[in-house]
Write a structure and sequence with these properties.
The chain is an alpha+beta fold. It is about 15% helix and about 30% strand.
Length: about 300
Amino acid sequence: MRRQLVAVFVAVLQISFGVEQDPAGQVDVECGVAGHQAEPMLWPFHVGLYRTVDGESLYFCGATIVSRWFVLGSAHCVLHYPAQLLAVRYGTYNLTQLEQGGRIGVSRVLIHPAYRAQDFSHDIALLQLIAPLPYGDTVQPACFWPAIPETGVVPDQLEGTLGTTVGWGIGPHNLYTYVLQILEVRVSSKPRCIESFEERLFKDDQFFCAVTPVCKGSGGSGFYVKLGNRYYLRGITTFGIAAKDKYQCGINTLTSLLNVAHYTDWIQQQLADHSAAQLQRPSEQTEENTMQQQQPQ
């Protein structure tokens, strides 16, 4: 019986969230399907966020592609930066390989209206790009996890769920790991999360936690669950527990992840609003947007 329920749930996921649509409603590209490239490039949904500081563009957080025009990350990463200082690096797994992938600027930052910086509540944000992402084997959107209905028909049993955490971050000797870190982990039990973090963050399942190798510098990075042949964005890295006076989290660090399923409706509404606006103006890129799409520096 349980297998039948899981099979039905997977079918619902694939039917409802299996493709992305363009503003005209036409099928654009399948979501969550890893390309045929070599192992390090199996995460075409993951991107790096860059900020300009004193004229220099620096990596500082991760995010996930959710459409051609938007990436999804953590509010705490982008709260204090105007859009014009931000950019997205896509199609790469090694940040030192400047010939890999490309870079697109950010035109608008949409922070969840209920976000509270003091306790990371609703720590989620959408970044709208100045030009559409060039989809291909190394650049694709992840699938959305369906919203958790008030009726509870779709189970949200997270404990023990196997997923993959992806990101760049602080590693040994407080140095950034410039090669993408990828590790399969299982979601920890709620009692363990509550014991290590604040209870109120977990009692309503807004967050869950897992032992991951990524933390500082990996804020906004995704936790992906594979169902069938697709990857679904299930969580977003928010904060972790590190040893006192240590900036890196390292291996075997309990990390808190935002439960993306609680925000699916909000995300899709923002994307729908953008699509509606696109239909009201010419779809061609302006010369300015085209010029701002550039290769990594």
